[in-house]
């Protein structure tokens, strides 16, 4: 293929992909299947890889990510991103209206009302129709340049076209994680034995600051735009601005409304108090703005907030219902979680039948009893929780609740470790939920990544008696698999191929996949890098283990206990015999430099140019180590604003060198 032919095909593919994206996000129409869309994208990426000189910054291939950002550049906003004052009642809204009326001296005015999406504010600047920069709100004056990550969000146009597109303009909006995506992500984390994410807003915020844009792309973030700024943009009202960004192809929520009076505003607020739960995005209030831009300028600002806009915040929703029973779930680590069985009740747009009770301490604190009427709340969380008891409805025959003393799955007597709130089933080798949970953790994509094996197949294999631990996976035969319900020749072959492919997974992923208590992905990596291979790790003493950065007493004791069991030694031996990786591939941990010369750092406080996560990555990438606590062995305390006085006092007392963010940047460039 000639360069000219490649250029023509790339242009045609880009136009098609942009068209289908626009149809999906602007017109809610899917004109082709996901598979057909992916095929178009794959062809475009292949051509751009073959002809890199033809790849443009606004190419749809930017959606898949792949850029690694070690540091996020700080950018000063051209127009400040101000926060809004909050109101919580109709009376407070009427007070706001009186201030607007007074400020405008009796002029007629109107409002625009919009839902307040619970996400992350973002500013997008376009130059000559192409996305130039994407910046977070930050402190309102300066934010982080997250352009590479923003490009992966499919509802953010990489290029806009049409009549009268300003040479340079800025649009603002809210990046969010759709509720369905958040629920799916939490289900994946739970299957991997990882801690569930708290809520969609925090998850969206953390995702936008990830260094690998391909991971951001996989998180399926979305974005609603609601403001237009710039010179010569030819709009007189906020409503005009919304219509303008709609015509430019931006994703605008069709929930906004123009209101002539404050009574109409209050009616809008009341309408969406319940109707908002039908949306696939978390909302926490309403934003009310004076519509006329000239009147906005006339009203001006206080020191912190615009006088022409205000936010109405909805209270966390709560419902009262009967506690019918308490059941117990067993996690892969043996942790027992109590769950309230409730009389079904409508809450925040969904029917709630179950709610979290957290642990025995929480049940005791609330003095819960079967038959009580309890308050259930979502309050921005996806998982409902019991928040209290209506004692006025408690029956005279209600008896104090007794927490179970035995495992609901295998009957073993529960244990409670010192300093922990949860109860545990100690029967690791024979408790069915623990066995299946450990295998599910082992095969997860962040561990051994056996994608042709899922929860249901594990259950079938366990029920047949073919799986008792993770080593049994590598003894499975075609004849055993083909007899399972739903399996045919191709699916059986794919499963065997997936298991075989997992043998090449890196040692640190195998170590994480074993599911040793307190050994998460990061800890597994640190252990692998330090001990190099499984044999040395298994032979390590307590003193040798706690010499590893970030490995404290709890992790060391857990490792010693795990490798002390003959059953676990046998599992490791069988995995080794099956051909799994038992030593580190050190080439993947090559660093940018050794400027920090293995020095140890504690990071504390808030920093101007970098987040704490970024600083941690920079230290590691330049040969340093990050630890969590201050001791005499520490080399440096990297101190930011609002650092806790206790850490500062301890570091001073021990003679630890305290450095600023600027000192650290100099250290990176000049070395220690």
How would you characterize this protein structure?
The chain is globular. β18, α22 and β19 (625-626) form a beta-alpha-beta unit. The protein folds into 6 domains: 3-64, Helix hairpin bin (Helix Hairpins, Orthogonal Bundle); 84-313, 2-Layer Sandwich (D-amino Acid Aminotransferase, Chain A, domain 1), CATH 3.30.470; 316-425, OB fold (Dihydrolipoamide Acetyltransferase, E2P) (Beta Barrel), CATH 2.40.50.140; 432-504, Orthogonal Bundle (DNA polymerase, domain 1), CATH 1.10.150; 507-588, 5' to 3' exonuclease, C-terminal subdomain (DNA polymerase, domain 1); 600-670, Rossmann fold (3-Layer(aba) Sandwich). The relative contact order is 0.07. The longest helix is centred in the N-terminal third of the chain and has 24 residues, at 3-26. The protein contains 24 helices and 21 strands. With 672 residues, it is of the alpha+beta class. Helix content is 37%, strand content 18%. The strands form 5 sheets. Strands 12, 13, 14, 15, 16 and 17 form a 6-stranded antiparallel β-sheet that branches. Strands 2-11-10-3-9 form a 5-stranded mixed β-sheet. The chain has a 4-stranded antiparallel β-sheet with strand order 5-4-7-8.
């Amino acid at each position: 293929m000639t360069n000219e032919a490649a250029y023509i095909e790339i242009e045609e593919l880009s136009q098609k992909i942009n068209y289908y994206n626009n149809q999906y996000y602007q017109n809610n129409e899917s004109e082709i299947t996901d598979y057909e869309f992916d095929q178009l994208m794959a062809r475009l990426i292949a051509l751009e890889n073959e002809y890199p000189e033809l790849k443009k910054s606004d190419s749809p291939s930017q959606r898949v990510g792949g850029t690694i950002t070690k540091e996020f550049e700080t950018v000063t906003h051209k127009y400040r991103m101000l926060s809004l004052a909050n109101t919580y009642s109709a009376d407070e809204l009427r007070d706001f209206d009186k201030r607007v009326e007074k400020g405008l001296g009796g002029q007629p005015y109107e409002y625009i009302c919009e839902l307040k999406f619970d996400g992350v504010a973002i500013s997008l600047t376009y130059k000559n129709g192409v996305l130039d920069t994407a910046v977070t709100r930050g402190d309102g004056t300066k934010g982080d340049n997250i352009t590479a990550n923003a490009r992966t969000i499919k509802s953010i146009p990489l290029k806009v076209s049409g009549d009268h597109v300003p040479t340079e303009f800025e649009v603002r909006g809210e990046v969010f994680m759709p509720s369905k995506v958040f629920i799916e992500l939490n289900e994946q984390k739970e299957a991997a034995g990882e801690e569930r994410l708290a809520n969609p807003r925090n998850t969206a915020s953390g995702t936008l600051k990830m260094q690998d844009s391909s991971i951001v792309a996989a998180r399926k973030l979305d974005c609603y735009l609601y403001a237009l700024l710039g010179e010569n943009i030819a709009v007189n009202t906020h409503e005009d601005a919304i219509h303008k960004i709609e015509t430019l192809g931006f994703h605008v929520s069709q929930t906004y409304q123009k209101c002539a009076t404050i009574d109409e505003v209050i009616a809008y607020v009341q309408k969406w108090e319940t109707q908002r739960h039908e949306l696939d995005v978390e909302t926490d209030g309403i934003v009310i703005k004076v519509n006329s831009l000239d009147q906005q300028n006339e009203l001006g600002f206080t020191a912190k907030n615009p006088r022409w806009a205000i936010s109405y915040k909805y209270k966390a929703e709560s419902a009262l219902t009967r506690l019918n029973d308490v059941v117990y779930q067993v996690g892969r680590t043996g942790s027992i979680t109590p769950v309230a069985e409730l009389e079904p009740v409508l809450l925040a747009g969904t029917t709630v039948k179950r709610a979290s009770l957290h642990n025995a301490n929480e049940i005791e604190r609330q003095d819960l009893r079967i038959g009580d009427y309890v308050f259930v709340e979502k309050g921005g969380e996806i998982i409902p929780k019991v928040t209290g008891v209506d004692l006025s409805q408690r029956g005279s025959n209600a008896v104090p609740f007794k927490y179970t003393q035995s495992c609901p799955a295998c009957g073993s007597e529960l244990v409670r470790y010192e300093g922990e709130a949860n109860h545990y089933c100690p029967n690791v080798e024979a408790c069915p939920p623990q066995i299946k949970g450990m295998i599910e953790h082992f095969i997860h994509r962040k561990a051994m990544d056996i994608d042709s094996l899922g929860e249901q197949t594990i259950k079938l294999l366990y029920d047949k008696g073919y799986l008792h631990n993770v080593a049994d996976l590598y003894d499975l035969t075609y004849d055993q698999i083909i007899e399972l319900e739903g399996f045919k020749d191709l699916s059986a072959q794919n499963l065997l191929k997936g298991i075989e492919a997992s043998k090449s997974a890196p040692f640190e992923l195998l170590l994480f996949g074993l599911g040793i208590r307190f050994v998460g992905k990061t800890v597994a990596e640190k252990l692998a890098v330090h001990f190099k291979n499984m044999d040395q790790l298994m032979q390590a003493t307590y003193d040798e283990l706690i010499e590893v950065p970030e490995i404290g007493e709890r992790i060391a004791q857990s490792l010693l206990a795990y490798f002390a069991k003959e059953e676990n030694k046998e599992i490791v031996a069988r995995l080794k015999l099956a051909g799994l990786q038992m030593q580190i591939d050190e080439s993947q941990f090559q660093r940018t430099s050794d400027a920090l010369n293995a020095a140890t750092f504690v990071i504390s406080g808030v920093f101007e140019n970098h987040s704490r996560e970024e600083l941690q990555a920079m230290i590691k990438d330049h040969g340093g180590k990050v630890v969590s606590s201050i001791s005499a062995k520490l080399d440096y305390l990297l101190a930011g604003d609002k650092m806790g006085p206790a850490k500062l006092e301890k570091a001073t007392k021990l003679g630890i060198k305290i450095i600023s963010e600027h000192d650290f940047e100099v250290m990176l460039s000049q070395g220690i």
